From TrEMBL:
Protein name: Torsin
Organism, scientific name: Oncorhynchus mykiss
UniProt-annotated location(s): Endoplasmic reticulum lumen
Coiled coil start-end: none
Lineage: Eukaryota, Metazoa, Chordata, Craniata, Vertebrata
Gene name of the encoded protein: LOC110509584
Key words of the record: ATP-binding, Endoplasmic reticulum, Glycoprotein, Nucleotide-binding, Signal
Amino acid sequence: MRPFFLLGFLLSNVTATAAIEPISTSIAVGMAAALTGFLATYQNVFYYFHECCRPEWISFNRTGLEVALDRKLFGQHVASRVIQKAVTGFMNNKNPKKPLVLSLHGWTGTGKNFVSQLIAENLYKEGMASSFIHQFVSTAHFPHLSQIENYKSQLQQWVKGNVTNCPRSMFIFDEMDKMHPGLIDCIKPYLDYYENLDGVSYRQAIFIFLSNAGGEHITQVALDFWKEGRDREEIQLQHLEPALSLSVFNNKKSGLWHTSLIDKNLVDFFVPFLPLEYRHVLLCGMAEMSAKGLKPDQDVVDQMARDLVYFPKSEKIFSGKGCKTIGGKLDYYT
């Protein structure tokens, strides 16, 4: 017999026997109350052990994100500031008018995926392992141009179904520069200023796009500052974002080429990730050694960093792969 049916059965029998069996009635009422308490307790215990779309499992840690960006993300003062303010402002808004949409741009190894991870770790108790985080990789999930119409239908269903299940869902689209142009436009209605679509509100969701597109422009700005003898930390968002959004919009090889997401101003921030210099590679190396449980060794990290490839060829300022291969490289040097 199901618990809720049993509860109804007990309560109905209370009414039927109240006039003739006061003692039995008291017992029945006591049993019903005990059962109700058990069900409530069972539900709370279930929420404790099983991830649910509730504050116990989804809660924004503003300080945690701020500290993580400050101590773990190297050489990205622009991105760090934008991410902190954008995510904090969105999470503090009890009635956002649309989902938060961030487009992260820069060369490989500069920290785009890492920032997505930091956001997840300070929003979801399970971090990137949360069932409310949905990650798509263009070359893995949408490889064939001939199937683009099927991909559009599937993507719409995935987004709608997951937001229906949990309004505070996060969607990460990696390799946007390799996505077939036109595909991402299928989710445009979900990113717009609608209160709800078919009874589903998308306003609490977060969408993050990761792309190498725009990396040339970002690098050129950083290089110009270096050639002019200006401090890298002088670079501000306004030096990069307008031209970055335009270059991505006009890049025929990008999944954001002529997309309505940009045309309709649905991307809240284009976040630039600067190319990393030698000094940043050293910081990454020291942090990686600590993460591996090793005692950070400046000499080892310095040797590893010197053996990496830097560009441009004449100046050799920026790491060709950022910090992406450092974990594997350190295994060789330690």
